[in-house]
Write a structure and sequence with these properties.
The structure holds two protein chains of two kinds.
Chain A: H1 5-36, H2 38-49, E1 50-55, E2 62-63, E3 69-81, H3 86-100, H4 104-112, E4 120-126, H5 128-136, E5 144-154, H6 161-164, E6 167-169, H7 172-176, E7 188-190, H8 193-197, H9 199-203, E8 207-213, E9 219-222, E10 237-238, H10 243-252, E11 259-264, E12 271-277, H11 291-299, H12 308-311, H13 321-331, E13 347-350, E14 353-356, H14 366-372, H15 375-385, H16 387-396, H17 420-426, H18 433-439, H19 449-460, E15 464-465, E16 488-489, H20 494-507, E17 522-533, E18 536-547, E19 554-560, H21 573-588, H22 599-605
Parallel strand pairs in A: 2-10
Antiparallel strand pairs in A: 1-8, 2-3, 3-4, 3-5, 6-7, 8-9, 11-12, 11-19, 13-14, 15-16, 17-18, 18-19
Helix pairs in contact in A: 10-21, 13-15, 14-20, 15-18
Chain B: H1 2-6, H2 12-32, H3 45-63, H4 68-92, E1 106-108, E2 111-113, H5 116-133, H6 145-159, H7 164-180, H8 185-192, H9 194-200, H10 204-220, H11 227-250, H12 253-263, H13 272-286, H14 297-300, H15 312-345, H16 349-373, H17 391-415
Helix pairs in contact in B: 2-3, 2-15, 2-17, 3-17, 4-5, 4-6, 5-6, 5-7, 5-16, 6-7, 7-16, 9-11, 10-11, 13-15, 15-16, 15-17, 16-17
The chains are: A alpha+beta, B mainly alpha.
C-alpha cells in the first residue's frame, strides 16, 4: 500500500476533520439541549419527580350554645393513588381494591374517575389495619399515598342529624354552579344541614406539600426546594342549639312515631332545638356513605332524611286560633274582654251551613275561648276581620313564606296569597265562609312546625318575632344566602298578650286539656291541636314556658304525625313539650332533671304530687 | 522497575488522557448507582470497575511489552481464534446485565467476558496484516472484497448474538483502515451506499431519488470505475431497497419502535422512547454547569435507564452540565486526535493501520454512544469506552491502547 508521509498527512487531516465535525455535531446537540432549551428540560425533570399533595383543611369545629362540641375532627387515614399513566393507576387500583375491601361497584366508579394528571382518592376513612397492610407491602402498590387526613366526628348522633346535615363528595352539577367556583372535583363538602349552609366557612383552605417521587412513583420525601403550604382550618360555628336539649328531645320523642319538635329562645328567636323524627346519624356519611345505608335511608317509608321541622307543612288546627286572636287584636277588632255576639251552643249557622264546635262554650271571652278552643268564638272573630283583611295580615306575617332559617331546604308554608288563590284552584272567588275555616286553622293553611314556633315567639315576646337562626353570629367567612323570611311585628299590647297567654295557661291548668303535662317548677302554657288530614290525625302542642313569676324563656312546638284517632295533642305532643321545657329550664339553672317531670309522670307512678294544685293568680 | 513502567511514557499525553477518562468513568459509575433506592445488585459496581481498572493497568503494562513483530505474527491465528470464540458464544453464550436477552458473554471459571472485545482487536490486527502486506492501496471494489470479508465475518457473528452496537464498531474499523490503506474516498462511499438505500426504501419515491443520485455519482466517476463496479453498486442498492420491507416485517414490534423512536420518541414514550426522553431530560436539566456531582435528580430517582452502563454520559450531562460535556468530549477528541497523529507519524504501514483500526472502533463507540444520549443517533446498546461500567470492555480497551502505543513506539524506534 502506498504509505508516503504526504499521503499519511493528507489522510490524517481528513480523519481529523471527521473527528472535529463529529465532535462539533455532538457539541451543538448538547448546546441546544443544555443551554438553549435547558429550562424546558429542567421543568420536565421537576415534573418528573415532584408531586403536589393536597392537605385537606380540617373543617371548622361546631359547638353548641354552651360550648359543647357538636362536630370536630379526628385523624383518619386516606388512601390516594398519585397521578401517573392511566394503565398504571388502574393496575394499582386493582391491587389495592381487595385490601381496602372496595365493592365492585365502587371500583367501577373509581375507574371512571381515573385521569393521568389527577390524584385518585380511593378511601377517606381507612382502618389502621388496612393501612398497615398497604405500608408493609409498599413496593406492591406503586403510587399509593397514605395520609392522615382530618375525619369528621359528630356528637349527638341521630339527635343532631337534621341540624348538622352530612358531608359528601361534590357533584358534577354542584361544580358547575357559581357557589362552588374554585372548588375542585372529589372535594368533600357539606351536602345537607348546617354543613351545607355554612360550607364556605367550615371548609377552610386546603394546603399542599411537594414531595419527590422516584420512577415507580414512590414517595421519597418532601421537596426541600419549596416549602409546602399548611392547610388553614375552617372557622368555628357557634350554634344557639343546646346539644343536651336536642339529645333529650331525641330521647323523649316516642320511638315509633314521626314528627318534629322546634324550640326557640324568645329573647332573640334563635333556635334552641330543632328535631325531626325519624332522624339519622350523620356519622354514617363520614368517609363516603355506604351505598346500602344510603339506599336504606332513601327507601325508608318514614323518610328519615326529610326534615319535618322545616320541610313538612301541616294544618295547624287549633294552635292557629291564637293567631286569629292576635291578628284581631292587632287590627283593633277585639280586646281582652270581648265576647262574641253569637253564644256557643255547639256550633253556629253561617251561609246556609252549620259550623260545628267541639263543645258548648256559652258566652266565652277571649281567654275562655282560647282555653276551651271554641270554634264558634273564632268563626265570629274571623268574620269580623273579613277575608280580605285576614289574608292581607296573615301574608304580612309571612304565613306563606319560609322563615329564613339558616338551614337549606326550608319549605314555604302554605297560605293563600289572596282571593285569587281560590280562583286559580277552584275557579270561583272565595266566600266569607272561607274565613271561618281559616280562623280555626283549617282550610288551605299548612304551616311548618318552625313557622308556628316563630309565631309563638311573638306571643312570648311583645308581638315581634325575629328570624329564627341556628348560628346567631356567623363567622365573616360564611356566605349568608338572602333569606326570604323577615322579622315582623304585631301590634299587641301587654294586656292583650296576657289575655292570650292566660287563655293558653288555662290549657295546662286544672281542667285544661293538657293539665297532665303541667310542671312543678315552671309555668307551661300552650295550645293543643289535632288536625285530620288524609285519614290521619296529626297532633300539635305549641307553647312556652318560664318561671312562674317571669317571662317565658323557651318556646316549643311539637308536632306528632298520625297519632291515631283517639289521641290528640294533649296526650302525645304536650308531654314532649313539657319535658323538653322542664329539661331546658332546669339545666339552665344548674338543677338536676328528675326522672318524673310532668304531672302525668307522677300520677302514673307515685301518685298525686303535692305541687299539683298550682298557685293561682297567673 | 524502570523497564517495566518505562513504556508508560511512550505517549504520556495519550495514556494520561485515557487514564483520566477511566477515573472520570469510575467517579460517574459511583454517582450513577448512588440513587434514592439503590439496587443491591449494582450498588458496588464502582468497586468492581476499580478492580478491573487495576487489572487493565496490569494488562496494559504487560501487553505494551509485546513487540510489534509478535503482534504481526499472532494476528491471523488470533483472528481465527476470535472467530471460533464468537461462534462458540452463539452456542454457549449467556446474557448479562442490561443485555440479558442476548448471547454476548462466555463464562469461564466464574469469569465472564465478551469475546467480541478481543475479536475487535484481532480483526484490527488481521486487517492491518492483510492491508500492509499488499503493495498497492485498494483502488477498486474488488480490492476491498477480502478486507470486507475479514471484517464481515466477526461482524455477522456479533449481529447474530444479536449485538447491533458492537457490530457497528467493526464497520468503523473496516472503513477507517481501508481509508488509511489509501482506498479512494468515492470507493468507500459507494461501498457504504447500500446502507442509506436500506433505510430510504421505506418510501419508494425517496428511494428512487436516491438510486438516481447513486447512478449519477457512478456516471461522474465513470473514468475511475470498472463497469462491473458500477453494476455491483447498483445491484447492491437495489438489493438493499428490496429486502428492506421484508426485513422490517421480520422485526419484533419493540425492535421497530427502537428505530421509530429515533424519529419521534413520543411514538412509544413509556417503553422504547423512555430511554431517550429521560436521557434528554437529564442532560437538558443539567444546563450550563450541571446539578452537581451526585445531585442529578433524573439519576437519583431512577428515571434514567442504564445509567451506569450505556447512558452514563447522561449522568455526566445532568451533573456537570454543558461545561462537563465539553470537557469530557475534549478528552475523547484528544485521544482520537492522538491516535491519528501517531498513525501519521508511523512510517510502518502495519503500525498506522493498527492505530487507525483502534481509532475507527473507538470513534464509533464514542460518537454512537454519546450521540444516542442526546437523540442524535438511534439507541443501540453500545458502551462508552473507559467510562461505561463493564470490566472486560475496560480491560480490552486498555489492551488496545497498549497495542496502539506499542506499535507507535516500535515504529518510531525503527526510524530512530
Amino acid at each position: 500500500m502506498s504509505n508516503h508521509p504526504h499521503a499519511r498527512r493528507d489522510r490524517a487531516r481528513i480523519a481529523g476533520g471527521i473527528v472535529v465535525f463529529a465532535l462539533l455535531l455532538l457539541g451543538a446537540s448538547f448546546f441546544r439541549a443544555q443551554v438553549l432549551s435547558s429550562s424546558d428540560y429542567a421543568l420536565t425533570a421537576t415534573n418528573n419527580r415532584l408531586r403536589q399533595i393536597e392537605l385537606p383543611a380540617p373543617r371548622g369545629t361546631i359547638v353548641d350554645r354552651n360550648g359543647r362540641i357538636v362536630a370536630d375532627n379526628v385523624p383518619g387515614y386516606a388512601v390516594t393513588i398519585l397521578p401517573g399513566p392511566k394503565a398504571t393507576i388502574e393496575a394499582t387500583l386493582d391491587a389495592v381494591a381487595p385490601i381496602l375491601e372496595l365493592s365492585p361497584a365502587r371500583v367501577e366508579a373509581l375507574r371512571e374517575g381515573i385521569a393521568s394528571d389527577r390524584h385518585l382518592l380511593v378511601g377517606t376513612d381507612v382502618s389502621f389495619e388496612k393501612v398497615s397492610i398497604l405500608e408493609e407491602r409498599r413496593s406492591d402498590f406503586p403510587g399509593v399515598y397514605i395520609e392522615t387526613r382530618p375525619k369528621r366526628r359528630y356528637f349527638g348522633g341521630a339527635a343532631m342529624g337534621h341540624v348538622l346535615g352530612y358531608l359528601g363528595e361534590i357533584t358534577a352539577e354542584q361544580l358547575d354552579t357559581e357557589r362552588f367556583e374554585g372548588y375542585e372535583q372529589r372535594m368533600i363538602i357539606g351536602q345537607q344541614g348546617l354543613e351545607a349552609q355554612y360550607e364556605e366557612a367550615l371548609q377552610g383552605v386546603a394546603g399542599h406539600r411537594l414531595v419527590e417521587v422516584d420512577v415507580l412513583r414512590r414517595i421519597v420525601g418532601d421537596f426541600a426546594g419549596q416549602p409546602g403550604q399548611p392547610a388553614v382550618p375552617g372557622d368555628e360555628l357557634r350554634l344557639s342549639i343546646d346539644l343536651g336539649l336536642q339529645e333529650f328531645i331525641h330521647e323523649v320523642f316516642p320511638d315509633s312515631m314521626t314528627g318534629a319538635v322546634v324550640a326557640l329562645d324568645p329573647t332573640d328567636g334563635s333556635v334552641l332545638a330543632l328535631y325531626s323524627a325519624p332522624s339519622y346519624d350523620p356519622n354514617v356519611f363520614v368517609g363516603g356513605v355506604d351505598p346500602e345505608v344510603w339506599d336504606a335511608l332513601n327507601s325508608d317509608l318514614n323518610r328519615p332524611l326529610y326534615n319535618r321541622a322545616i320541610q313538612g307543612t301541616y294544618a295547624p288546627a287549633s294552635t292557629w286560633k291564637v293567631a286569629t286572636a292576635a291578628m284581631a287584636i292587632d287590627l283593633g277588632i277585639i280586646e281582652e274582654h270581648t265576647v262574641m255576639p253569637t253564644r256557643c251552643e255547639g256550633g253556629m249557622f253561617y251561609g246556609n251551613r252549620y259550623w260545628g264546635c267541639l263543645g258548648e262554650h256559652g258566652d266565652a271571652n277571649l281567654t275562655e275561648a282560647i282555653a276551651g278552643s271554641c270554634n264558634v268564638y273564632f268563626y265570629q272573630v274571623g268574620l269580623e276581620i273579613g277575608l280580605e283583611r285576614y289574608l292581607e295580615l296573615a301574608n304580612s306575617l309571612g304565613f306563606n313564606e319560609p322563615c329564613g332559617i339558616d338551614l337549606p331546604g326550608e319549605a314555604a308554608s302554605v297560605f293563600p296569597h289572596g282571593p285569587d288563590f281560590w280562583v286559580e284552584r277552584f275557579g270561583a272567588r272565595p266566600t266569607e265562609g272561607e274565613t271561618l275555616n281559616l280562623a280555626i286553622g283549617q282550610g288551605p293553611n299548612d304551616q311548618t312546625p318552625l313557622k308556628m314556633a316563630q309565631f309563638y315567639v311573638a306571643l312570648a315576646r311583645d308581638g315581634s318575632a325575629p328570624v329564627p337562626r341556628i348560628v346567631p353570629a356567623p363567622p365573616e367567612s360564611a356566605v349568608v344566602s338572602a333569606t326570604t323570611g323577615a322579622a315582623w311585628q304585631l301590634d299587641l299590647s301587654r294586656a292583650a298578650l296576657h289575655v292570650i297567654r292566660d287563655g293558653m295557661g288555662a290549657v295546662t291548668a286544672q281542667g285544661g286539656t293538657a293539665y297532665l303535662s303541667s310542671l312543678e317548677l315552671w309555668d307551661l302554657i300552650g295550645k293543643t291541636g289535632s288536625a285530620q288530614a288524609g285519614g290521619k290525625t296529626n297532633a300539635w302542642f305549641a307553647g312556652m314556658a318560664g318561671p312562674w313569676d317571669g317571662e317565658p324563656e323557651i318556646v316549643i312546638v311539637a308536632m306528632v304525625e298520625d297519632v291515631g284517632p283517639d289521641r290528640g295533642g294533649s296526650s302525645t305532643a304536650a308531654p314532649i313539650v313539657a319535658k323538653a321545657a322542664d329539661y331546658y329550664l332546669r339545666t339552665k339553672r344548674g338543677l338536676d332533671v328528675p326522672e318524673l317531670q310532668t304531672l302525668r309522670d307522677h300520677v302514673m307512678t307515685v301518685g298525686w304530687p303535692t305541687w299539683s294544685t298550682r298557685p293561682d293568680g297567673n | 522497575m524502570r523497564k517495566l513502567f518505562g513504556l508508560w511514557a511512550i505517549d504520556g499525553p495519550l495514556v494520561g488522557a485515557v487514564a483520566v477518562l477511566s477515573l472520570i468513568g469510575l467517579a460517574m459509575i459511583f454517582s450513577a448507582v448512588n440513587t434514592i433506592d439503590p439496587d443491591p445488585s449494582i450498588a458496588n459496581v464502582w468497586i468492581r470497575q476499580g478492580v478491573w481498572f487495576v487489572l487493565a493497568l496490569i494488562a496494559f503494562t504487560a501487553v505494551s511489552r509485546v513487540p510489534q513483530r509478535w503482534l504481526e505474527w499472532v494476528a491471523m491465528p488470533a483472528y481465527v481464534f476470535g472467530l471460533v470464540l464468537l461462534g462458540a458464544t452463539l452456542i454457549i453464550g449467556t446474557g448479562a446485565g442490561t443485555a440479558a436477552g442476548t448471547r454476548s458473554f462466555i463464562e469461564l471459571a466464574g469469569f465472564r467476558f465478551q469475546p467480541a472485545e478481543p475479536a475487535k482487536i484481532a480483526t484490527v490486527l488481521a486487517l492491518a496484516q492483510y492491508l500492509s502486506n499488499r503493495a498497492e492501496s485498494p483502488a477498486n471494489l474488488r480490492d476491498v472484497v477480502v478486507p470486507g470479508m475479514i471484517a464481515a465475518a466477526p461482524l455477522g457473528l456479533v449481529l447474530l448474538q444479536p449485538d447491533l452496537g458492537t457490530a457497528q464498531a467493526f464497520v468503523g474499523i473496516l472503513f477507517a483502515m481501508l481509508f488509511w490503506a489509501g482506498t479512494p474516498v468515492p470507493i468507500l462511499l459507494l461501498l457504504a451506499s447500500p446502507l442509506p438505500a436500506l433505510i430510504l426504501a421505506f418510501d419508494a419515491r425517496i428511494w428512487a431519488v436516491y438510486i438516481v443520485l447513486v447512478v449519477f455519482a457512478l456516471y461522474l466517476l465513470r473514468y475511475r470505475l470498472f463497469f462491473y463496479e458500477s453494476v455491483a453498486v447498483i445491484l447492491a442498492n437495489f438489493a438493499a431497497g428490496t429486502i428492506a420491507t421484508p426485513l422490517w416485517n421480520t422485526l419484533e414490534p419493540y425492535q421497530r419502535n427502537r428505530l421509530l423512536v429515533y424519529l419521534d420518541p413520543m411514538v412509544d414514550p413509556l417503553d422504547q422512547g423512555w430511554n431517550i426522553i429521560q436521557s434528554k431530560v437529564a442532560i437538558g436539566s443539567g444546563g450550563l454547569t450541571g446539578q452537581g456531582y451526585l445531585e442529578g435528580t433524573q439519576k437519583r430517582y431512577n428515571f434514567l435507564p442504564e445509567q451506569h452502563t450505556d447512558f452514563i454520559f447522561s449522568v455526566v450531562g445532568e451533573e456537570f452540565g454543558f461545561i462537563g460535556v465539553v470537557v469530557a468530549l475534549a478528552f475523547f477528541g484528544f485521544v482520537l486526535w492522538r491516535l491519528i497523529r501517531l498513525a501519521a507519524d508511523s512510517a510502518d504501514p502495519f503500525a498506522g493501520l493498527v492505530l487507525l483500526g483502534i481509532f475507527g472502533a473507538w470513534f464509533v463507540h464514542i460518537f454512537v454512544n454519546v450521540g444516542m444520549t442526546i437523540g442524535l443517533v438511534p439507541v443501540t446498546g453500545i458502551p462508552l469506552p473507559f467510562v461505561s461500567y463493564g470490566g472486560s470492555f475496560l480491560l480490552m480497551s486498555w489492551v488496545a491502547l497498549a497495542i496502539a502505543v506499542r506499535v507507535a513506539h516500535d515504529d518510531s524506534g525503527t526510524r530512530a
